[in-house]
Amino acid sequence: MNKYDAIVIGAGHNGLTNAAYLAKSGLKVLVLEKNEYIGGAAVSRELHDGWTYSNCSYVCSLLRPEIYRDLNLQKHGLQVLAYGGSVSFTKDGDIFGAYSDQDLFRREIGRFSKKDADAYVRFTRDVSKQCRFIKPLLLRTPPDPTSFRPKDLEELLYLFKRLYGLGEQTMYDTIRFYTMSAAEYLDEYFESDVVKAALSGSGIIGTALGPYSPGTAYVLLHHYMGEVDGSIGSWGFARGGMGAVSKSLAGALQEYDGEILTNAEVTQVQVKNGKTTGVVLANGDEYHAKNVVSNLDVRRTYQDLFDPQDLNEKLIKQVDNYKFNGSSGKLNIALDGLPEFPAMGKNNPLIYADMHFIDSLERMERAYDDWKNGRWSQDPYCDVLLPTMTDPTMAPPGKHYMSVFVQYAPPKLATGEWTDEDREGFGKTVIDQIGEYSPNFKDLIVHAEIRTPQDIEDEVGLTEGNIFQGELSMDQMFFNRPFPGYAQFRGPVKGFYMCGSSTHPGGGVMAAPGANAAREMLFDLKRKNIVPTAENDD
Amino acid sequence: MMTRKNKNIAIIGGGHNGLICGSYLAKAGFKVDLYEARSDIGGMASTRELADGYKVPGAAHLLHQIDSGIQKSLKLKQHGLSYAASGLKTVSINPKGNALIFDDDNISGDDITLREQDQYKEFKVNMKGLSGFFKKTYQSRPPRLGSEDRKDLTGLMSLGWNLRTMGKDSMRNMLKFIAVNIHDVLNEYFEHEHIKGSIALDALLGNRLGPRTNNSVITYLHQLTGDLNGVQGSYAIPKGGMNSYTQALQKAAESAGVTVHLNSPIKQIDLDDENKVKGLILENGETVQADIVVSGIDPRSTFMCLVGPKYLEPGVVHKISNIRMRGNTSKLHLALSGLPVFKGVEPDDLGHRIINAPTMKYLELAHDFTKYGQYSDELPMEIIIPSIHDDTLAPKGRHVLSAIVNNTAYHLKDGWDDSKPKILENCLNQLENMAPGIKKLIVHAELLSPVDFENEYGITGGHWHHGELTFDQFLMLRPISGMAQYTSPIESLYLCGAGSHPGGGLMGLAGRNAANEIISRES
Amino acid sequence: MLQQDHYKQSVYKTPFHERTSALNILNEWARWKDYTVATNYFATDLEYFAVRNTTGVIDYTPMVKQKITGPDAAEFVNRFFTRDMNKISIGRVGYVVWCDEQGQVLDDGTVFHIRENEYWLLCVERQLDNLGIAAIGFDVKIEEITDEVACLGVQGPTSCSILKAMGFEGIEHLKPFDIKHYDFQGQEIMISRTGFSGDLGYEVCMVNEVALNFWDDLFDKGEIYGIHPFGLDALDLVRIEAGLLVPGQDFMVAEDAIRPGSTRSPFELGLSWLVDLSKPVFNGRQALLEEKKRGSRYTFVKLNVNGNKPAEGSYLYNQSGKKIGNVTSAMFSPSAKANIAFASLHDPWKKGKDKIVAEIYYQKDLEWNKVMEEATIVTKPFFDPDRKRTTPAELY
After folding, report:
1. B340: closest CA of chain C, how far (Å)
2. Which pLDDT score is estimated for B234?
3. Among A207, A136, A220, which residue's Cα sits nearest to residue A405?
4. What part of A 488-527 touches B (C-beta under 8 Å)?
5. Contact assignment for A321 to B188 by CB distance below 8 Å
6. What is the pLDDT at residue A87?
7. CA neighbours within 13 Å on the CB side: how many for B186?
8. CA C375 remoteness from chain centre
9. pTM for the complete prediction?
């Protein structure tokens, strides 16, 4: 029997979330995955004997607690372990540690500027205000601002009321927050370049913009939005690697009798009389369903799976113009022991935290200039973590796994496609940077997996290796995501939907797009909504 | 009872906005005195003596973005405004000598195909549609958010209404593009690098942006809002030099009853014990009584220098000190012994607007230097030779060249004193490449930096538009939130300069909108 | 300048720690900003009665201290704080609040006008950022001196006698809110007749080096006058009786507030006497003028609640059962034998018309019970003895 109520293309975490909700609602659901493993970019893979890598995404920060709870992910094996803080190493041999303890952190800022230490209170408040404003929107469907349908008008009214409820000054602050550059925004609070650089790191992750680019300030939110066990601002590791997230979602799906088929690459979405009828696999197998959902990004979906005749001209153009701007690379490194960071001293709790080796905004911006010019950053912004400090199960006892997220690496180099040599060169740049701050680091390396945007595209299927399935810039956010007119998860063909990070609210291991899409599908199918909305934070 | 007739208004600064504001106020019956620090009127739209017998536009060198409503109601034509040339074409040159010619909505040259011509037409239609929304919102004061005032509520509603009635596609384009950059927009329309570079320059000129910098869509749409003889985004050169525009404005103002005081720099805005406006104190110590003071100079100078931070709440001072006004534009002036020959430019086109913006990448690279307080060897320019159209500007057979040179940051790491000769040299070398032999024609050359503009015209940061035009300094946030309605925390002190909505350019809407606000509040 | 390994010590000890820890037989401590301070030494009620009956000593070194100096200092403070600072002459202390641009209270504290062009601000939250922003255009220098100055509160009816016995001549002539500088073992110390207790009492600021000697001398001379240390728990009792607010408990510090409507203006905290709208400019003035016109959202009141169950955290209702506010601080006053509370009231409560009923939950034998108790508004502090004001101060 190849007939289902709904077929989900791609077993990424959003596809699985979407499928789990559809199955929970009582639909017969099938998830089709081209790789032999599920999870897409949320995976745990043993690429070197004894070491487990979270080889794409590496932390849980924005995984919606409402979904976690609702799908009972804990029962299905997910355990998110909190970690906190970050540290920036400076050129002159000092460190700037964002300690979890508030007073300790304040005193640490005070080492660079006493005034900044006090200003941090104001900064936290202002960003938290924006968090509070934005958080409920993550699990809501954006309205179409051009529409006059009651559902859209109601949602617009909700937004308007919420915005107005902020009060005059905060409304102005909100406009500014969403349009200013991280650098300009931070300038209104801080004077120390080290402090500003440390705080703006979260503003450039996954984004092809430098900290001097307007429109990067709002990404400062990310740092404050992550929540683990309800404590705002903290980030966490999935115990056993990010694959645990996908595994638990698959567990939830299977509990509701959903099916998953791996090694099953979809090559076409079948359309008849403007309606979806099913999909065809690479091996020629056909599966039928009136509802087909794609977890892939918009370009993969519309350019690879559809006959252009089934799509309208305008959509084809919108897909063409959709910006990916892949900008990140990744190194996964197996280490024979714990690397030393002399500047940090022994037993510093920051060894559990994110480590960065950039101490000024100018260095970050110059790293971005390299990207613009088709080179990987010669002095990159790296987000380095030792997940094994928190979760020793990922490596043999006493050994460590290091995850290095690298900003920026272009999807294509000025010289053309990435070659093996380029990949080695890229890896060397990153390893050299870390080696500058850790004398024994290079000697400890047992194995290193180097992933360029090209590799991420080839293996995971993310176009240009963009970790968010498309740039999260203002023209591709909220009711513009992925494009105006298609922001409500429905595709151009009846019965076809999108549920990946190309849709609202975008990338990160949030599971929100998958859940949001499920809500809209259940609405269309006239079934009761079972997708949770955001918990009230007031 | 106090009526308009016996209320004295003192306007600070005789730039076009001050003159326009004064004219409307005088027409409404106020007694208006205008104080200008310099010996001639016009501010940034003035004429400058370059060398004996050679005159150049001091700053702005093209009439552009004029509001036709103001032009008509102040009868500028009757007051002597006429054009030496209008409907100027844009000639975009590149190193290969392939010039691209933009003539209103048509493009030609540099292997332009029919398809590209169509793309350009489509692009212009769409952009004019979007800038139409700007144009409408520019005609009145921006509303205060969260206010229960009827005027603010209707202002907000009409904003929404104007957006909704643009049509579905335009509205969607607006919401998509408004906060992003011209680079991404142009990539959606064109493949031809030279076209993209040339259009992008319009968004960047006078601003501190690269094509990829978000906010460059706003600046692009902004410069499209004006019209000249009904043609949107058209360029003209006034007869008798740039200051003939402001002289016409001066005549209009004087005929409306404004008294203009030249050589009258202001030292301080005089406040009473309750921080209400009492009048002005001039640099020479003279005091002038005024019931209302309107400042046409930039908001930073107005509040930090003329009022003084001590008389303002700290929150307001903080916001004002955060206004970004980092000038990025210099002027290059040449006195020439003859007409230069630009590579690839037909002699007939020499009198038009010549720009140097071969690709977006070229512009982006220039901006990369700016970001770090450095300068590129290759600077984007807008060049005109006004003496072709107006023989009063140079001795017979001789010429003056005026170029706006972008990406020369106010804050240079090496400082302007050391950098200026080098930048001038770079510019001349660049020109020599564009117009071989031009160096030999040079009788006199000067470069005016943003620092020079700050010193000469008193604009903080040498920023022509009195504050960068970015989303966070736009509409109800211009110059800062709470002051966007031309009012200020100091009772009876108003703002009418380009630092206020809708910002810079020669349109004069800030001046007129401010006048309207004052009339409705003070009557 | 801190070293980069300062993380090894997250919490500091005050200069008095050697003594306070010896006396803290309960070993009960709390964290107050950067420091560890005693919550209780031997018994909360006995510590409380030491303050009310003889003398209690509290280590309040963690209180944030900022020094403002420079030619524009007077002008600067007058624009920063809401009240007329010209009235606080040299040698005087003033209770102050200050606001953000929206007229919402950032914090409260005391300003010490130490000498010409020198002021100290003592408060709960650090203000370098706010003071720094406000200093644009003023010739002033602002430093935080919290860690350099050790502070003790010496509070209670016999406090003056003890200080006099220590040799501080003329101490009894200090009027409330007066400051006097004395020499103590070759170092200048500052004594002011101020405090949180609502009784006769003094506060002493000194350099860290003399802290232990001062403590020893104080307890040595104080022994016959019944001197005892008291901790934060007893402090909370005396300050409620004295009618004094605490930021972070009785109102939200505007700098920390995230939700709209959670902050308070000075008017909404019953502090309009601290606001001088006739001053031409100070931060929040425009907003406060507008509030005057529009009316305030909240009213702060002191309550005398029926019954003997403290109304901690209680919801307040009017006679028709509509919610009209919350209690922010509450206790059963041992001195007044009254059930007292601070509360913030809002619509639809009408002054003089509406009743106030507190919904009080309390535990007896682990069982939770609820009572609804009527409360009446009190205008004077619950504890307000004459000796607090009498000058010269009472000596024993």
Report:
1. 51
2. 83
3. A207
4. none
5. yes
6. 95
7. 26
8. 25
9. 0.95
